[in-house]
Design a protein that fits this description.
Length: 175
């Protein structure tokens, strides 16, 4: 089998990028909080299900996190990925396989995509129903909210991390 057709020969970051690129033009449906499945009627269920699908397909398991109430729970929201998963990467140093985050209201992370090169990312675009490839372009967040935290998109980049053989999570970025 050729290297191009077998993800096992790729590095983790190349594998994330390759699987994400294979999802481009795949249908997406809007998130429904009553549906707790990765796929629904052969459609990805929002931007986070794309991320979970790609990471799982790449062999990266997303860890649970401890909530403010002390209860361990899975990461089910973009802001939880932003707060608890991966290593922060400065703008301009993003690379293939990194996660890119956006905020529509300037208050919290609300959208996530996968970087495939320094200026392009793939994301599940629920407003038109397709997984798309777009350029990473900085733009102001238009909001009239007084509690704005972020003023430009993207709001950040994170590099996924891996666990050791004891399933202990540590801040070792994938390469």
């Amino acid at each position: 089998m050729s290297k191009e057709n077998n993800y096992n020969y790729l590095s983790p970051s190349e594998k994330i990028s390759a699987i994400a690129q294979a999802c481009v033009n795949f249908p997406v449906q809007r998130y429904d909080k009553n549906i707790n499945q990765l796929f629904v009627e052969t459609k990805l269920n929002g931007c986070l299900s794309l991320i979970k699908f790609v990471l799982t397909g790449s062999g990266i398991v997303t860890p649970d996190f401890i909530g403010p109430d002390g209860i361990q729970r899975p990461m089910n929201h973009v802001n939880e990925f932003f707060d608890h998963f991966g290593i922060n990467i400065p703008f301009g140093q993003q690379k293939e396989g990194d996660l890119v985050f956006f905020s529509w209201d300037g208050i919290r992370p609300q959208h996530i995509g996968i970087v495939i090169n320094t200026d392009t990312y793939i994301h599940a675009h629920t407003s038109d129903g397709w997984v798309k490839k777009n350029r990473i372009a900085t733009h102001l967040i238009k909001t009239d909210k007084s509690d704005t935290v972020y003023i430009t998109n993207p709001i950040g980049f994170k590099r996924p991390t891996i666990s050791n053989k004891d399933d202990r999570w540590f801040q070792k970025p994938i390469t």
